[in-house]
Amino acid sequence: MTAPPGRRERKKAATRQKIADTALRLFLERGYDEVGIREVAAEADVAVTTLFSHFASKEALVFEQDADFEQGLTRAVTERAPHEPLIPALRSEIHAMVRHCTADGAAPIFRMIDESPALRDYEDSMRLRHAESLATAIAADPDLARSATACRTIARFVIDAYSLGREAADPAAAVDEIFRMIEAAWEAA
């Protein structure tokens, strides 16, 4: 059992969340390109250096759950039960991510992302990083025994399943359809 976070960790997490919430509110009210980092810091009542100690860039403010998503993907591989098949574990994780990102209130955020070249580029690089982390986790599992190319390919398919599912009229059905193809590709590898 892990110990609950201490006071310092709780304060840091609260500050990070306050900054992210403030940034998102300002971006949605006024437009991503119209809001500067200094404005976000001032509105969140933190120093610019504090903002940058929590977020590496302005774009990272929009994708504040990036690390959680990446860790969730790798945990779906590394923490699955012994002999639990890989693809159903990943399908379950992608379903959870898609549900989170299609919940009420998410549409304006993704509209903002779609309208901003900087945010689209950041999202593309984030997806590639997530795919590489996932491929590394898959390749490290001795029970899976696939080539590095197969692991990287499946990881990219999984990341694309998230993106395509999130954009579909019926996200759950789209994820299931995509994962049937992913499962066939995994078996063929």
Structure description:
With 189 residues, the protein is mostly helical. The longest helix has 24 residues, at 7-30. The protein has helices at 7-30, 37-44, 48-54, 58-62, 66-78, 86-101, 107-115, 117-140, 148-167, 171-188. The relative contact order is 0.10. The chain has 10 helices and no strands. The model has no long low-confidence stretch (mean pLDDT 91). 76% of the residues lie in helices and 0% in strands. InterPro entries: Homeodomain-like_sf, HTH-type_TetR-like_transc_reg, HTH_TetR. Residues 13-73 form the HTH tetR-type domain. This is TetR family transcriptional regulator. It holds the Pfam family TetR_N. Residues 36-55 bind DNA.
Topology:
Blueprint: H1 7-30, H2 37-44, H3 48-54, H4 58-62, H5 66-78, H6 86-101, H7 107-115, H8 117-140, H9 148-167, H10 171-188
Helix pairs in contact: 1-2, 5-6, 5-8, 6-9, 6-10, 7-8, 8-9, 9-10
What are its keywords?
single chain; 189 residues; mainly alpha
Return Rg in Å.
18 Å
Give the biggest sheet: none
Could you give the order of the helices and strands?
Answer: HHHHHHHHHH
- What's the shape? globular
Query: What's the mean pLDDT score?
Result: 91
Class of secondary structure makeup: mainly alpha
Number of helices: 10
Helix content: over 70%
How far the N terminus sits from the C terminus, by CA atoms, comes to: 38 Å
The beta-strand count equals 0
Please indicate the percent range of residues in DSSP E strands (runs of 2 or more).
under 5%
What ranges have pLDDT less than 50 throughout 5 or more consecutive residues?
Answer: none
InterPro entries: Homeodomain-like_sf (IPR009057), HTH-type_TetR-like_transc_reg (IPR050109), HTH_TetR (IPR001647)
Pfam families: TetR_N
Protein name: TetR family transcriptional regulator
DNA-binding region: 36-55
